[in-house]
Amino acid sequence: MTARRCAPLAGIDLSVEAVPDATTLLKFRHLLEAHDLPRAIFAEVGALLSERKLLMKEGTIVDATIIAAPSSTKNARKERDPEMHQTKKGNQWYFGMKAHIGVDAQSGLVHSVTGTAANVADIAQTHALLHGEEKEAYADAGYLGVEKREEIATGSPGVEWHVAAKRGKVKAMAEGLVKELTVQLERLKAQVRARVEHPFHILKNLFRHRKTRYRGLAKNTAQLHSLFALANLFIARRSLLSTAAA
């Protein structure tokens, strides 16, 4: 994003103030990163939403999405970002990182964010996406067996997990009442999990963050905290505006 485009977002009136140059914006970003302020901003937005009773914290949906990174070596170092990695999804290979999020099952607001290389399994970050107060958690088939992991069994023993069954397993079931009930149950779980897709939609389609901007996981994870904080405000904008007007 250019300095001119950033200016209105920062509350700078371009008719009376000069546009901040790229160096000024770079120094400001480095200041944010040095003091881990994007994470603090994300936490502060979460606290505001909790205060307004928009984050209920009774259920969590966990999921992850791949953020592509430049795979070209046509740069000053003649190499790809060493902290990124490639992974295979379906029949296609991707190079980059993963954004892992924990989402409030009722409101669809993001309460936890982590960033890893793309080859890190989704299930490996599950413990970092739980806030500790949820009674239920939802996940897709990539998280099968999550309740048996040591960090989950010891850290969140009271959570009831609703993980999607593999489609092939459901499809292979014999026709009859059991299969019909299983299909209905999977449909209900999918309806809840669908809420986790909205923050990803905002991130990639509204904010157009489909590719990493910087080198290294730390800088890109810091940006994810900033973007998901903004995504939360966007999701809750109507509720926040209605309470402010009251």
Beta-strand portion reads 15-25%
Low-confidence stretches: none
**N- to C-terminal distance:** 35 Å
Could you give a short account of the major beta sheet? 6 strands, mixed
Q: What's the order of the H and E elements?
A: HHHEEEEEHEHHHHH
Q: How many strand elements?
A: 6
Q: Give the count of helical stretches.
A: 9
Silhouette: globular
Q: What is the class in the CATH system?
A: Alpha Beta
At the third CATH level, what is the topology name? Nucleotidyltransferase, domain 5
Structural class: alpha/beta
Rounded mean pLDDT score: 89
State the helicity in percent bands: 40-55%
Could you explain the architecture of this structure?
With 246 residues, this protein is α/β, with parallel strands linked by helices. The chain has a single domain (55-245), classed as 2-Layer Sandwich (Nucleotidyltransferase, domain 5), CATH 3.30.420. It is 41% helix and 18% strand. It is built from nine helices and six strands. The chain has helices at 3-9, 22-34, 37-51, 150-155, 167-171, 177-193, 197-206, 217-235, 237-245, and strands at residues 59-68, 85-89, 92-104, 110-117, 136-139, 160-163. Strands 1, 2, 3, 4, 5 and 6 form a six-stranded mixed β-sheet that branches. Helix 3 packs parallel to helix 8. It is globular, with a radius of gyration of 20 Å.
